[in-house]
Amino acid sequence: MNIASVRRPIIPPTPPRAPDNLSFFGRLAVIRQNMIATWGQRAYEEEIIQGRFFLHKSFILNRPDAIRHVLLSNYENYTRTPAGIRMLRPVLGEGLLLAEGHAWTFQRRTLSPAFTPRATANLVPHMTAVLDETIAKLDARTNEPVDLREIMQRMTLEIAGRTMFSFGMDRHGPTLRNFVMEYGERLGRAYFLDMVLPVSWPTPMDRARARFRTRWTEFVAMLIAERRAAGKKDGAPPRDLFDLMDEARDPDTGKGFSDAQLVDEVATMILAGHETTATALFWALYLLALDPDTQEEVASETRGEHLDSIADIDRQKFTRAVIDETMRLYPPAFLIARAARDKDNVAGAAVSKGDIIMIAPWLLHRHEKLWDQPNAFIPKRFMSKEPPDRFAYLPFGAGPRVCIGAPFAQAESVLALARLIGAFRVELADRNPVIPHGVVTTQPDRSPLFSITRR
């Protein structure tokens, strides 16, 4: 018997679970610091938990059939919550993630051709070029502690810049990272008034977010202007995502994106693409540093592979399982919150207009009725002949609003992890636990230092 199948799997550290009787205001105080620390043991055991949110009921759903109903069967009845809109609109505007109704339909079908497997395959050379550069830079640092979280952020930002615009982010990367950090540290957190007031009633933080949005959209518009100035050869095939998005047309009307719409779509793709992928890769490297045996299996799978095409990426079955398991334990989007437009019935629970539905991938992916050893790192669970229920595993959401960039993100993550672990043995330079914090995404509470050695 393979020893990897009988050894005890690692259980990475997590925040303490809240008392089940934590008061509303006690929970509110924790939310701004770490949303995933607000849930108690019940949330990991029960299928549906009903509570109150001011004048409305709230529901946490851990039943796949109930989640299917909300995200697929009756998805048009559920919209983003006021707090969710406040958190995302300043950075994403009216882009695909926030659009509703006809605007969402237009954007989704107009953008779809830019994210087909064929389009993703054409962008792989941009990814491999950045990975070659990253590995070369890491080669020079094998005798010193390195911050792999920062390196993953820089690397995925560079990939985002090249796949979007065909130019590097040396000049603009620091500014973009500053925008991301500024927003996440203060403006991207939910405050009391954000959660209780209608979106039409501006809160003090909304005014600060509006000032941020002005600066942010000017920056993205500048990037677009620079890319347009570079031009494109007549008759040449699209060379990057910007070409695909700029040339995209609604298949029914022939209408394309306005300049303002294009700013929001570009902002959405850059932010949603680089930040979530960087976070997933950090957690994958952290888990493999905690689990050297699994790390060696990844290295063994990559040995002798060129890893420069979609076909090469698709052959990395175990590495893909490591990425899948990483996103189960650390889902980038740890919470999906929706407000009911009208009354409904969800798995026997009566939902009224305005009630809040919470689907938390953090809870769902660690639920004790849905997973064997839910808190353990076991990548081979994703190589089973019986995959998990589609609505029990939601790293990219589900239903019509599933993340349009999922194939791109999966290809980038598998390629990057395979190349990095194929090149280096990764170890933690300190053994202090790294605790996940749910703020905008599932972030580490600190950036540990790693040591790397050439294989």
Structural features, described:
Helix 7 (173-187) packs antiparallel against helix 9 and helix 11 (259-290) packs parallel to helix 16. A five-stranded mixed beta sheet has the order 1-2-7-4-3. The protein has a single domain (3-454), classed as Cytochrome p450. Helix content is 48%, strand content 10%. The protein has helices spanning 24-31, 64-73, 82-92, 101-111, 117-139, 148-165, 173-187, 192-196, 204-230, 241-247, 259-290, 292-302, 310-314, 317-329, 361-364, 406-423, and strands at 48-53, 56-61, 78-80, 336-340, 344-346, 349-351, 356-359, 424-428, 436-438, 442-444, 450-454. The two termini are 27 Å apart. It has 455 residues and is of the alpha+beta class.
Q: What's the end-to-end separation, in Å?
A: 27 Å
Helix content: 40-55%
State the CATH superfamily name.
Cytochrome P450
Write the element-wise H/E pattern from the N-terminal end onward: HEEHEHHHHHHHHHHHHEEEEHHEEEE
Catalogue the unreliable spans.
none
How many runs of DSSP E, i.e. beta strands? 11
Organism: Bradyrhizobium campsiandrae
Cofactor: heme
Family: Belongs to the cytochrome P450 family.
InterPro entries: Cyt_P450, Cyt_P450_CS, Cyt_P450_E_grp-I, Cyt_P450_sf, Cytochrome_P450_monoxygenase
